[in-house]
Amino acid sequence: MGVTGLAMEASADHRTRADVHRTRAANRSRTRVRARAHGRARHRARSHARPAAAETTPATVVATTTPGAATDSAAPTQWMPSRGRQCHGRGSGIYRGYCEGPRRVPRPFGEAAQLATTLGIGTHDVATHLLLDAPDPRWVAAVGSQPADTLLWPVTEGRLWRGYGRVRRRRARRHVHEGMDIGAREGALIRAVNDGLVLYANNELHGYGNIIMIVHADSSVTFYAHCHASYVFAGQRVRRGQTIGQVGHTGLAHGDHLHFEWRVNGRPRNPAQRFTEVPEDSRGLLSEAFRSFTSFTHRA
C-alpha cells in the first residue's frame, strides 16, 4: 500500500474514532437530560402530592398565655411567598445543585410580630450574627422563662444519623460537623428542646434551607435546619416540647432529616450528653457518637 493509501486509511480510522467519541458524548448528554427530566418530574410529583402538608398537618403544641407566644393551634394557614426552589447553579461551590426552598414560613402577625420589630430580630443580619457571636442580652431577657439543664430530643420519631464532629470524608477529616443529623420522614414533627424566643425563621442562609433559630434563657441558641416547613416566626415565644416545624430536606441535605445545632456564645457545642427522652434505638448511637467525638478531639 502506498503512502497515499496509508494516509487515507489513517484518516478514515481517525474519523471512525471521532464518530465513536461523538456518539458516546451524545449518549451521555441524552442520559443527563433524561436524568434531569426524571428528577424534575419526581420533584413536581412530590410537590403536587405534598405541598399542603405544612398547611394542613395539625401541630400538637403547648397552650400558653404569655404575650407574643405561639398559641395552641393547628399548623399555620397564612404563609410567606414561596420564592420557588431557589436552587444553586454554577459557581456555587459545594451548594451547586442544592435548593434552599421552597420557603415555608408563616406570615408574622400580632404581638409577636411587634416584638420582633422592637427587638430587631427576624432578619438575615440576625441569622448571620448567631452563626458567629453570642445573642444580644435583650433577646435573652425577652425569653421570660428559667433555663433548663437538659435538651428534649427534637424529633420523637427521629433516629440519629450523624453525630457532632463525625466527618469521614478524606478531604475533610479535620472538619467538625457542627451539629447532629436526625433522620425522619418528611413531615415528621419537630419540637423545641427548651423554652425560648424565636429569633429567625426563614431560608436565607446557604446550605441550611428552611431554618429556625431559638434563643434560650441560658443564652444558648438552637438551630433546626433543612425543615420542610416552620410553624413559628421571629418574635414568638415557644415552650419546651412545643411543635415548631416539620422535617424536610431543603438546603444542603442528603435525604429527609433535621440538622440540629446547639450553640453557646456563638460557638457550636456537642449536645449529646444533654439530651433527654431519646428514642431507644438512638441511645446507643448517641453514646457512640459522643465517644467518637471525644476520641476525635484527643487526636486533634
Write down the overall mean pLDDT.
77
| Proportion of residues in β-strands | 15-25%
CATH topology of the largest domain: Glucose Permease (Domain IIA)
Total number of strands: 13
| Whole-number tally of structural domains | 2
The biggest sheet amounts to: 8 strands, antiparallel
What is the level 1 CATH name of the largest domain? Mainly Beta
> Which architecture name of the largest domain does CATH use?
Distorted Sandwich
Terminal-residue CA separation: 69 Å
Describe this structure in words.
- The chain is α+β, with helices and mostly antiparallel strands.
- It folds into two domains: 1-49; 52-299, Glucose Permease (Domain IIA) (Distorted Sandwich), CATH 2.70.70.10.
- The protein has six helices and 13 strands.
- It has helices at 3-49, 53-56, 110-119, 124-132, 137-141, 280-299; strands at 151-152, 159-162, 180-183, 189-191, 196-202, 210-215, 221-227, 229-230, 237-238, 243-246, 257-264, 267-269, 275-276.
- The strands form three sheets. Strands 2, 3, 5, 6, 7, 9, 11 and 12 form an eight-stranded antiparallel beta sheet that branches. A three-stranded antiparallel beta sheet has the order 4-10-8, with no helix packed on it.
- The longest helix is centred in the first third of the chain and has 47 residues, at 3-49.
- It is globular, with a radius of gyration of 24 Å.
- The N and C termini lie far apart (69 Å).
- Residues 37-67 and 293-300 have low confidence and may be disordered.
Features:
2 domains, 300 residues, Glucose Permease (Domain IIA), 8-stranded antiparallel beta sheet, single chain
